[in-house]
Amino acid sequence: MLTMRFENLALKPGSRVLDVGCGGGRHIRNTRQVPGVHAIGLDLGRDEVRETAKTLQELDELPVELGGSVAGAGSWMSMRGSVYALPFADESFDCVIISEVLEHLHEDQAALAELTRVLKRGGILAASVPREGPEAVCWALSRQYRNTPGGHVRIYNRKKLRRMLAGAGYRIFDSHFAHGLHSPYWWLKCALGVENEEISAVKLYHRLLVWDMMRRPLLTRALEKALVPFIGKSVVFYGVKV
User: Fold this and answer.
1) Which domain holds residue 50?
2) Contact 148, 193 (CB under 8 A)
3) Count of the separate structural domains present in the chain
4) Residue 48 lies inside a defined structural domain of this protein
5) Which of 8, 116, 125, 210 shows the smallest number of beta carbons within 10 Å?
6) Tens of pLDDT along 181-218?
């Protein structure tokens, strides 16, 4: 399930993309649909890096008509690394993606400075975090959710985050909410048990999300469109490094 709008990333043949905190590779996978893009997925977790590599290898083996990489699709790499000390030279990338990562970081401004260092002047930063309202409901419903080691350490105010990005040297050119269907799922988990995946209501809702992701039916697409302005789980900003 993509959080970013890829048309805002201005990817073209030869573009170099860094996905920081790539997780299972959901965003970097989509970059493989653009000819000639060179993409790197970076994560601190060994399992996440392996999952990203596996996902991209499988994608390269599929025919294009089944969602495989397009001809001349450039290159990719999956590697471990810290956002606080990125192993790249200054101004190495045309685009940097950081999706649902900043809220986990105690030193978010230090991380942002490092992202800015490796992004070219005129390059695009795409950053998303949990939206303030839905996230506050999760925190209110579950002590475990807000105290899980490695979990979320802050709730971002949208206006303050925008000012933080602008202060780091970005001209914000677009912003939107995402994942309207996801907030109720997390509220259910927080209310009934964050780690209890066997609760019927949670299992049923998860099946709904998988159905939406795999089939994209008109019903869930309409619900997503109606809900996202009000309870979209994530807020996304796009900025150009000036």
Assistant:
1) 6-241
2) no
3) 1
4) yes
5) 210
6) 999 999 999 999 998 888 999 999 999 999 999 999 99
* Structure tokens given for 171: 């001209």
For 8-45, what is each residue's pLDDT tens digit? 999 999 999 999 999 999 999 999 889 999 999 999 99
The answer, yes or no, to whether residue 66 has pLDDT greater than 80, is no
Half-sphere exposure of 99 (CA within 13 A, CB side): 25
Q: Give CA–CA dist 17/204, Å, rounded.
A: 36
Least Cα distance to 97 among 145, 52, 36 occurs for 52
Q: Which amino acid is at 94?
A: D
pLDDT at position 73:
66
Q: Are strands 16-20 and 170-178 parallel, antiparallel or unpaired?
A: unpaired
The token duo for 87 is 């192993």
Comparing CA positions, the residue from 114, 65, 120 lying closest to residue 92 is 120
109 is a domain residue: yes
* pTM for this entry: 0.95
Q: Would you say residue 165 lies in a domain?
A: yes
Q: How far apart are CA 236 and CA 21, in angstroms?
A: 15
CA distances from 70 to 39, 40, 52, 94, 164 (A): 14, 17, 18, 20, 37
User: Is 63 inside any structural domain?
Assistant: yes
Query: CA dihedral defined by 141, 146, 149, 153, rounded to 10 degrees?
Result: 160
